[in-house]
Amino acid sequence: MQFLIANWYLVLVALVSGGLLLLPSLKQAAAGGGAGAVGTSEAVRLINREKATLVDVSEAAAYAAGHATGARNVPMSTIESAPKGLPTNKALPLLVIGGAGVNVNRAAGMLRKAGYTDVRTVAGGLAAWREASLPVEKSA
């Protein structure tokens, strides 16, 4: 105890550095990346190696304005009512992505409720996809 009192500044430095190490995890959680969130590089790996399907849950107008290349549009409003565009094999990984203001965690929960067993969200959504310089396309 006497050591801690005599070296309070070392304890403070250790606590601050520990907090800074946790900061990226806290930012990811705040950006819509919950427990099942993956980064963009992990998302690309899942698409290429595990046949993951990228599902954009933005509404049609937002999807047409710009979406990740290869993403299937399944608007959040249609997820509960037998959506078209989702794979019939419910064991394949689904990666849920959305634009600003889209609650991808809610959409992922709805997909899990529909029977899909491996549903993950893309942390940071479409903004992170663009920031990683991954391809984005617009619909006509």
From TrEMBL:
Q: What is this protein called?
A: Rhodanese-like domain-containing protein
Rhodanese domain location: 48-138
From the UniProt annotation, give the residues forming the signal peptide.
none
Which domain of life does this protein belong to? Bacteria
- Membrane-crossing residue ranges in chain numbering: none
Q: Which InterPro entries did the record assign?
A: GlpE_sulfurtransferase, Rhodanese-like_dom, Rhodanese-like_dom_sf
Phylogenetic lineage: Bacteria, Pseudomonadati, Pseudomonadota, Betaproteobacteria, Burkholderiales
| Annotated Gene3D superfamilies | Rhodanese-like domain
Mind telling me which Pfam families this protein's record contains?
Answer: Rhodanese (PF00581)
Native source organism of the sequence = Aquincola tertiaricarbonis
